[in-house]
Amino acid sequence: MPVGIIQPSNQIKLTNVSLVRMKKGKKRFEVACYKNKVLEWRNKIEKDLSNVLQIENVVFLNVSKGQVAPKSDLEKAFPKKSVEEIIKDILENGELQVGEKERNAELERTKNEVIDIVAGKLVDPKTKRVYTSGMIEKALDQLSSQAAAQQGDKSDKTDKAEGAENGEDKAKAKELPKWTGIVTSKSSKSQALFAMKALIAHQPIPVARMQMKLRVTCPTSVLKQATKTAPKAQASGDDKATHGTIKDAILGFMEKIESQDTLGAEWEAVGLVEPGAFKGLNELIEGQTKGRGNVEVLEMAVGAED
């Protein structure tokens, strides 16, 4: 007799209920679960199986119809495995299914995360002010509309390539990053980074990466000492090391050097760095100067000039 799935409105929200599906042989097996908990289970955060499953110790052929998988089918598809072991196998290796309402909710959540990240890292290069989330969203919508129009109109794409600024040729114009919208199959962080590249490349609104203005001080006695840390590589997470001086490494972190000066036994440099490079620069100063150097933040948000 089919097992009905009771979903009281005060206990289970439709947007939070999902299923994991696995095909073994000619049969398809499913378990009813909570999506967020499945992800936590796979990431070894959640360890209590009862918190993951909507219905415990039951494997279905079809969750929506309440069709429980016969014991004979389970034994044939998963030989010598208990029901709990089978459920764990499905949870860890099966395909996570979501409903339309949950997909829409996930898309909206990802969209908000992407926009928040972008809005926190871009500024108006003239006023040095950050944009609101609404303005960033409109700018991205404009880019996605342009990308859709270009995709459907080859002649328009050619015209844009021919009219690209700074003497760019068609091939170079085509290489500009094209923003086509938010998806749930990629992380919010990776999409935000690509969105920033697209906004900076196309400039639907005047934007530049937010930068920090720093003052770095260091004893002149250590400036010419060698370091194996490549500043640009360290900032980008590249493990490749190259030889250079500590001074070269410090200046390598700076996108723009505003001033350098030597006062007695101390060297000072003022410049702009991207926020993501601050940690690496600070660690370099602390490690190479044994605490005698210093990094001071002069301004938190500076718009990079074109």
UniProtKB/TrEMBL annotation:
Pfam families: SBDS_C, SBDS_domain_II, SBDS_N
Flavoprotein in keyword set: no
Transmembrane residue ranges: none
Location of the Ribosome maturation protein SDO1/SBDS N-terminal domain: 16-103
Basic and acidic residues composition bias: residue spans: 153-173
Keyword terms: Cytoplasm, Nucleus, Ribosome biogenesis
All copies of domain Ribosome maturation protein SDO1/SBDS C-terminal, residue ranges: 212-300
Subcellular localization(s) per the UniProt record: Cytoplasm; Nucleus
GO CC terms of this entry: cytoplasm; nucleus
GO biological process per UniProt: cytosolic ribosome assembly
Region (Disordered): 143-173
Domain Ribosome maturation protein SDO1/SBDS central: 112-209
Oligomeric and partner information: Associates with the 60S ribosomal subunit.
NCBIfam families: RNA_SBDS (TIGR00291)
Stated family: Belongs to the SDO1/SBDS family.
Protein name per Swiss-Prot or TrEMBL: Shwachman-Bodian-diamond syndrome protein
